[in-house]
Design a protein that fits this description.
Elements lengths: L2 H27 L21 E7 L4 H14 L3 E5 L3 H10 L5 E4 L5 H9 L4 E10 L1 E5 L6 E3 H8 L21 E4 L5 H11 L10 E2 L3 H9 L4 E5 L1 H6 L4 E3 L1 E3 L4 E2 L3 H5 L7 E9 H4 L2 H20 L9 H4 L4
Parallel strand pairs: 1-2, 1-3, 6-11, 7-8, 7-9
Antiparallel strand pairs: 3-13, 4-13, 5-9, 5-10, 11-12
Helix pairs in contact: 2-11, 3-4
Amino acid sequence: MNKLLRLFVTSVVVMGLALTAACGSQQTSEAPKAEAPKAEEPKKDEKKLSGKIVIDGSSTVYPISAAIAEEFKKAQGGVEVSVALSGTGGGMKKFAAGEIDICDASRPIKKEEAEKAKANGIDFVEFTVAYDGISVVVNKDSKIDSITTAELKKIWEKDSKVKKWNEVNPAWPDSEIKLYGPGTDSGTFEFFTEAINHKAKESRTDYTPSEDDNVLVQGIAGDKSAMGYFGYAYYEENKDKLKLLKIDGGKGAIAPSFDSIKDGSYAPLSRPLFIYVSTKAMEQPHVKEFVKFYLTKASEIVKDVKYVPLSDYSKELAKIK
């Protein structure tokens, strides 16, 4: 091989090695491209429910059920919960006819209501959800501070002829009593008349009735000679507009409060509050879950709406099958 040929071959080899080195260097210096992360699929919420729940009944229990329904809808957006207030008696009529799933009640179900429900194929479970003390209130400018159960009876009993405050107690004002109270379908009306007049639903009729306790609040707040009664929560909600009377049932005058209602010393106007749930409705997952939610949250919500919770809800929760 002559000198010129050797020089050409050597150049080609050197160039080839240089190119190889350059390519190798370029390949090793370039980082491998990272794979784009796969978007995570949204987790399926196995507890997500849907459906409708219809509740009606007691205006006293209404604030509890309404507050719990609102919380439940936040947790289970697919469930529509409607809460109305037509009084315990009105709610029981609808419940016994199968028109609603849950009845709020400020008294136990009556024998005839239970029999009517059974005749319509409706079985049910009773749950105690709170305690209440029926509050007797007057206008905030009233000079009266307390009243005995005997004086209440004299005012509210059937065919009462009392027109003025001083006809009940000479120390009271010489002004006409304006009375406000629940309608005859109300469980509060039944409980009060039985506790004070000693016979349920027996009462004077010349008073302003309403199933809506807010209407009673407005009436009493706007009339200096007024008196009325309703659940403790409505007094607490409107205590800046009203005056709460202490009740003397024979052991001294006691005002309703969280403690006096809880220990039963506010007598005879302390009482349990209930919900009645159709067993057929509770076979539906969304209704069953709502009732569990209700009893689990009750202790917290009941306090928030100014009633007295049970010390332990485990017995009530155990009723859910």
